[in-house]
Amino acid sequence: MVRRSPGYFGVKWEASSSSSLVDALGSRSRCGIYRLRFADGTAYVGQAIDVVQRYKQHVKDWNPLEIVGLDFRVEKREDLSQRELETVWYFEGAGNLRNKLLMTLSDGEGCALNDVVRPEDQDAWVRGGEVSSGVQGNADVGSEHAPSTKLRRLLDREDWPEIRAFLSTFVRSAVIAPEATAGRFWSVEPLPRARRDNTLGRELARVHFYGLDVLSVFEVRSRQGERLVANAIVAEPELNGWGERWKWLVTAFKLSSYAGEGKGLGYYQDVNFTSHRSMTEFFEQVQLLRAARVMTLARMRRGAIQTKGHTPELLRQILEE
Q1: Domain span at residue 139?
Q2: What is the pLDDT of residues 171-224, one digit of tens each?
Q3: Which InterPro entries does the annotation name (predicted)?
């Protein structure tokens, strides 16, 4: 049996379809790993010797109207526990798993972010609302800091207005209470040290969360000359049915360079923007905005970060009107 990625599922069944789960499975073995998908965008990963019988048990435990689909892949019986663990770890980065066991990331309960933004405000914000109350404290926005040499070099670039627009659009759209959370739960850095896995070009600015650079702005050289590319990582969009999935693909290809799923931090979409206008249009799509917010909130709930490279003066430049 070929060993598949933890993010791979050979069967993707929609509860609203006319075919049953049995029909979707066909002649495949029913032993393997499954992922239940719910209407609120959450999911549950589990193992089953007979996934049909396991699904029937879940229907008794949860409101069947909440379940929108099930994804499944065949695994050997002796590998189930290990593959279940790998799959939970794979998907948990998006922050929307209902699993309690096997998780390595915080689900928000008791996390340090709650001391800054109330949990109910976090939940409302990730669904598209704004945080108007419950925010404690403010970040250092650099009002008394002279620009560093790196920052001055960035500000002196002719394309600084576009760089700033990328950073501002992302931070204002996809980061909760940025004035209060910057420097503790995420950082912004000018001209950061080059990464070994960088294949795009020279990195001009970086927005970093726990264990992940969620946004990077690059200077890319090509035969047509130099251009800016903003690389952003968002969680898997919450899509119901093939209609919404097709709309997501069209939007992703139209507004950005779509790079598909990443590996290791959960199922996520890696997208590149060549203008801040396309990024703005991307975030105007409700599902896509939520996908970006789910990713940043999940990383912030994971914990505080080391802020060695954080530059408060750059933050001030981003947040000023």
Answers
A1: 112-319
A2: 999 999 999 999 999 999 999 987 655 667 899 999 998 777 899 999 998 888
A3: GIY-YIG_endonuc_sf (IPR035901)
Which two three-digit tokens encode residue 132?
């108007």
Total number of domains constituting the chain? 2
Copy the structure tokens of residue 112. Answer: 């340090």
DSSP code per residue over 36-47: EEETTS-EEEEE
| Final residue belonging to a domain, choices 37, 65, 94 | 94
* pLDDT at site 266: 42
- Tell me how far apart the alpha carbons of residues 125 and 144 are, in angstroms, rounded to a whole number: 31
| Alpha carbons within 13 A on the beta-carbon side of 67 | 21
Three-class SS of residue 138? coil
- State the pLDDT at residue 41: 86
The residue with greater pLDDT, 316 or 145, is 316
Q: How far is CA 69 from the centre of its chain?
A: 21
pLDDT given for residue 57 in this prediction: 92
Residue 41 to residue 318: CA distance in whole angstroms: 31
Written as one letter, the residue type at 93 is G
Same domain, 126 and 72: no
**The residue to which tokens 């093939």 are assigned:** 242
